[in-house]
Amino acid sequence: MDIDSFLADLRKHGLANTIPNISDKNARFLKDMIHIGGVKNLLEIGTANGYSTIHLCLALRENGGHLTSIDYSLPSYNEAVENIKKTEMDDIATLIFGNALVELPNLPAESFDMIFIDGQKKRTIDFYKLAYPLLKEGGFFIVDDVIKFSEKMSSFYEFLEVEKIPHTILGIDEDDGVMMIVKR
Q1: CA–CA separation, 173 and 169 (whole Å)
Q2: How much is the average pLDDT of 76-88?
Q3: Cβ neighbours of residue 24 under 8 Å, at least 6 residues apart?
Q4: What's the rounded Cα separation, in Å, for the pair 170 and 151?
Q5: Once rounded to an integer, what is the mean pLDDT over residues 19-33?
Q6: How many Å apart are CA 177 and CA 36, to the nearest integer?
Q7: What's the alpha-carbon Rg for the chain, to the nearest Å?
Q8: Which CATH topology does 3-13+22-182 take?
Q9: Cα dist from 148 to 6, 77, 78, 152, 154, whole Å
Q10: Which of 42, 43, 93, 126 could form an S-S bond across to 115 if both were Cys, CB 3.0 to 4.6 Å?
């Protein structure tokens, strides 16, 4: 299978069907972070159709890593499962169907090197609080869409300010960016 062609077609499908996939620039950034950080175990919150998951798996495969991804939409989950199988990434990706707010407490503490939050923006604060114990010391959170959806994430921004949690916002795309938080 030509993975690049498959991803290009999946991207087109996502755009045509308003599936909230990450941009190509963001995919490159995330893959670079996986390599730079030597990430072996990654948690993704928000699978959608598996576009980002496949990109993450490509980098994780090179690192000998594993990805766990959670999504609560059954149609999205089913489509992601199918796409992960087609790209033969099912040996390094575990997809969980369910509400991340329910599923996160079931995952082992300090088991992830990186956590990518790309779920419901208004729930970002809840995802962060539940996922924090799952991240290893020195690991990092990357939160997507923090500029264009900042209003939906206002409680998260307030939490970071009140708790004095250092974070960096990086403009990745023309209209948006990501936030990075390192667990210290």
Answers
A1: 12
A2: 95
A3: 11
A4: 17
A5: 90
A6: 19
A7: 15
A8: Rossmann fold (3.40.50)
A9: 28, 25, 28, 9, 12
A10: 43
